[in-house]
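Need RNA polymerase sigma24 factor's 3D structure for a figure. Predict it.
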Amino acid sequence: MTDHTTDLATEAFVAHRNLLFTVAYEMLGSAADAEDVLQETWLRWVKADLGQVSDQRAYLVRITTRQALNRLRTMKRRREAYVGQWLPEPLLTTPDVAEDIELAESMSMAMMLVLESLSPTERAVFLLREVFEADYDEIAEAVGKTPAAVRQIAHRARGHVDARRPRRTASPSETRAALESFQRAIETGNPQDLLDVLAPDVVLLSDGGGVKRAALRPVIGAEKIVRFYLGGSAKVEATITWEPTVVNGSPALAVHRDGELDGVMAVRVEDARITGLYFVRNPQKLTHVTSETPLTLR
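Structure prediction for RNA polymerase sigma24 factor:
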């Protein structure tokens, strides 16, 4: 490959890099693995005959999807051996990501956990069609299926997701208000205030990765979660602070222990009350939250 061709390949890759990272991240739920997929995509991209590529964006998305699918299938064993609850790696994102409603919803902790229940091919088809608006022929090329098969897979995946997604997606302001109420209740230690902001059947998932203390199983029910948090807080000698942030396109809370980042709390909100709490404490999953530069996606 000549230097000129390499420059053209680099220019095209850089132009679409944010999109490719988002595709890989939403497929895998891991920024580290998404970065590895992008490296593999680049190595294949620079070997391509650019003169034969009619749509560079579609071609790059196809490579990224295939590499992500390969990695997703091999990650299954890693997930099965994971200690406790597994949650996606939170990403510090710019506030404008929330303006892209489909993207913000698909990146939320709640939705990414729903996507975990799909097969790798279903997940790829759903994301490429519903979030990235690829046509069926393009998706077929990416996942190695016929367009007719892709239509069936898309229909099946959409039905699965629709049955599990919230009836109405909470706006950023609604989520922020619920988080503020949650934060005040935790900081004041008022059980009733905490019960008021939590839905009766709220579920807490916490991910310590076997490194940090976390509930190994889901904690279900507002009263149990109140006891979990207020009882646990009374035993902590360190200074705990909660600071508003934006992760995965939605308002969230960064939890600091004696000034050091200790975890990230994301939530699912319905009808002004919290129905899902997602607390990531695994230090290996917090590197993209400590970054000073939020990610701009797409």
